[in-house]
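Continuing from the previous page...

OK, I double-checked the sequence for Betaine--homocysteine S-methyltransferase 1-like against my notes and this is the correct one:
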Amino acid sequence: MSTRKAIKGLEERLKDGESIIVAEGYLFEFERRGYLQAGAFVPEIVLEHPQIVRQLYEEFVHAGSDVVLAFTYYAHRQKLKLIGREDDLEKLNRKALKMAREVADETGTLMAASLSKTMAFIARDSEAIAETKKMFREQVQWAYEEGVDFMVGETLSDLEEAMYALEAIKEFGLPAVITLSSLGDTTRDGHPYSEALKKLEDAGAAAVGLNCIRGPATMLPLMKEIRDVCKGPLCALPVVYRTSPDLPSMQSLTGVGPGGSNIRYFDLPAWQCSRTEIQEFAREARAIGIQYVGLCCGNASHYIREVAETLGRSPPASRYSPDMGARHDPTLLAKQAETSLRKT
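Thanks. Re-ran it with the corrected sequence; updated structure tokens here:
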């Protein structure tokens, strides 16, 4: 367990009405940098290139993240089985957690770890449910032993599976943030999102909301509906892509080639949000009353800086915020203009 100096925790900050900025999006960013394979999306980078993982932890804090989220997303048995590395499961988790704890201690930020959908869950299947619970519990136990401040259950499609994640987190007495992925009109097990999140809130989650799948333009309208039902702290962490009412998810975005074929993952950068759109997202999230705000797939450090600055912060990266008026020496520009006038 960490012996770091105590700082204000998640629940205390939420109770005091503070905004908490959280950078997610490790999978896509590491794939973009050439350290993770799209498709299986297994976080082998934690063991093979740990310095790159630690660097991104530091970059996100530098840009304004209040939380170092350990890269334990998809670091579970089902994913490690895909590549024949199930024996490395605990080693991978603990490595990701230890690095996150170190960076959080050095920067005075909170440290969290994430649980993702297990790929093992099947409703009404007792063996699958038992395996799901086991997978969640072992990851939470490792996180607890490595000194995590709170846990995140994210990108969960079923309310039932989300409840199992929350149950595992509560067993260890840790604060829980639970976010659902909103691909359709309801959770995969048929619950409206506002209803599902209210159930999770009532079951003891410190904050609830949505992450991934939807971009800002299609997540925020749904968050307004959720705000009307859920009375506690809310979370919103969209993907950084231009979704729309006609194309509400990143999975639904289509290309511009013959037949408008679905591009899925490969060409998603063609739909990247602008920095201005991310600023607008942060402003609207604040207006709705969303306290736990961040970005998911497609995120990068400059986007998190936009969120932080829009919410009134000045993270270290603000020293390098764009100032296009500083491209030239104003005195030199004046002399050049004077010379041009003389020539005419």
